[in-house]
Amino acid sequence: MKHLKLKHLIFIAIAAIVASCSSNNNDEDTTATKPVLPKKELRGVWMATVWGLDWPMGNYDSQSQKDLYKSYLDLFAANNINAVFFQIRGMADAFYDSQYEPWSKNITGDATQKPDYDVLKFLIDEAHKRGIQFHAWINPYRIATRTSQSASFPDLDPKIPKEWVKDYNKIRIYNPAMPEVQSRITDIVKEIISKYDVDGIHMDDYFYPALDADEKINDDAEYATYGSGKYSSVEDFRRDNVNKVVQAIQKVIVDTKPKVVFSISPAADNDNNYNNLYADVVKWSQEGWVDVIIPQLYFATGSSASSFNQRLYWWSQFTYKNALMVGYGLYKFGDPTTGDKFQTSDDLKNQFDYAASKPKVQGSILYSAKSLLDNKVNIMDVIKKVYSHPALPPFLGRTTVAAPSVPADVKINGNSIVWTAVNGARYAIYKSNGAGQMANLVAITSSTTYSLSDKGTYFVTAVNADNVESDISTLVTY
After folding, report:
1. What pLDDT shows up at residue 33?
2. Residue 102 burial by Cβ neighbours in a 10 Å radius (0-12, 13-18, 19+)
3. Before 56, cis peptide (omega within 30)?
4. Which residue from 173, 183, 187, 179 is spatially nearest to 141, judged by alpha carbons?
5. Element (H, E) at 450
């Protein structure tokens, strides 16, 4: 009995010492209580510049352009949006000084006039200041449009060889069948990623053109020159022409700046992609030529074949070696021609809820920026709720990257949480909701200190440039 009493007293003494140390250090043992990290998400907005749609909206002086862009980014940052997909090349033009194509006339109103500031550098720097990724959105083939065959196309810029061009009733394009064109598009991508610190290269659904009913693709001569005897059909020839560009873009990214993410946003109907635009998106996914596929699911929820639900269900089944994200058509909300479900914001919430039920979905991209400013039928109320907490973008790299070190010496100093720096990292600050429970991401910062406003238990992780996250730090209570 004496031995049992002695052991009991020793146990109490040790427990008291441990409790005292824990109280003094304001720490908790992470092995005893480990919270769950929330899912990583890319949350982006498309910013269209063709015809000045979202930017610069007809503003041709630099200060107005800068102010408009910064107001967009401030709105994004305030609503925990972490990426902008900015259209820097919509009509074989450029938002930077290019050796291959003219300046975009949407900047100054005149394609021959150079702007008085480095537009693309400004756009990227302002995004990065706010912790927002910048994805450079380009259109591979489109050069110009016109209202009808009787109208004239703009004069072709001298940088673009006229023998590389095809004209149709309403669109002028680079000829997708020509090896010189395929090389030109790849060279343009290399120029962009070599000169500028973009986080991604992005293309939408414009590949071979969608023509009027009385037109057909005029490529008999090209098929005879480049495809005869090599393909079973001209359709396979066209698809392979696009495949070559997609594959070459990925290769030039990997060879030049492998951290750059390559994403494509196809039309929602993959039969249309395959048979009319000659975009074999499933093959790209199977081969791993594209890092992210973002189908444009601009439909209301429901059970029909063309509903948001059924389209997303299809894409979820045909995702292989790429991340899957959802393109949302914000522009339809509040438009009286788009149907009853788009006349309130309720269906936007339903769309987000359905996407959240699909484990493969790793993000959302909103079309387009102006719709957030217009805020028709109060769509921003939904976005504020869905994006109520910050989110870390997912790792979208092609190879395994080691996680950074865990932040050390985490402690509370007054009303701030502080920690020791991890080389080359930024940091995520979380508030714990208990063992086994989903923690709340409070902030993402490059500093090694953060001011806290709410009482609770917190921890920190380090995040490297590839968005790979460390294990959690010691928990501390404020």
Report:
1. 62
2. buried
3. yes
4. 173
5. strand 449-451
| Nearest Cα to Cα of residue 353 among 326, 334, 329, 376 | 326
What does the pLDDT look like over 264-287, one tens digit per residue?
999 999 999 999 999 999 999 999
Q: What are phi and psi of 293, to 5 degrees?
A: -110, 130
Instruction: Judge contact between 207 and 279, C-beta under 8 A.
Output: yes
The pLDDT of residue 392 is 98
- CA nearest to 317, candidates 250, 353, 270, 364: 270
Would you state the pLDDT for residue 401? 84
**Percentage of the chain lying above the pLDDT 70 cut:** 93
Q: Is 59 helix (H, G, I), strand (E, B) or coil?
A: coil
Backbone angles phi, psi at 228, to 5 degrees: -60, 130
Helices 379-386 and 346-356: crossing angle, nearest 10°? 30
Dihedral of CA 236/238/242/244: which sign?
positive
Please state, in angstroms and rounded to a whole number, the distance separating the CA atoms of residues 65 and 47: 13
Tally the C-alpha atoms within 13 A of residue 292's C-alpha that lie toward its C-beta.
32
Residue 300 zone, left/alpha/beta (φ > 0; ψ -120 to 50; rest): beta
Task: Judge contact between 468 and 403, C-beta under 8 A.
Answer: yes
Residue with tokens 């997708």: 176
Please list, in sequence order, all residues whose beta carbon lies within 8 angstroms of the beta carbon of residue 326, skipping any fewer than 6 positions away: 294, 295, 297, 312, 351, 355, 361, 363, 364, 365
Give the CA distances from residue 207 to residues 265, 273, 315, in Å, rounded to whole numbers and listed in that order. 11, 9, 19
Q: Please, what is the end-to-end C-alpha distance for the chain in angstroms?
A: 43
Structure tokens at 198: 């973009």
Backbone φ, ψ for residue 459 (5° rounding): -150, 170
Residue 2 DSSP SS3: helix
DSSP result, 260-320: SEEEE--BS-HHHHHHTS---HHHHHHHT--SEE--B--S-SSSSTTSHHHHHHHHHHT--
Token digits of residue 129: 């200041």
3-state secondary structure 314-335: HHHHCCCCCEEEEEEEHHHCCC
Which segments in the chain show pLDDT lower than 50?
1-32
Contacts of 470 (CB under 8 A, 6+ apart): 403, 404, 405, 406, 407, 422, 425, 461, 462, 463
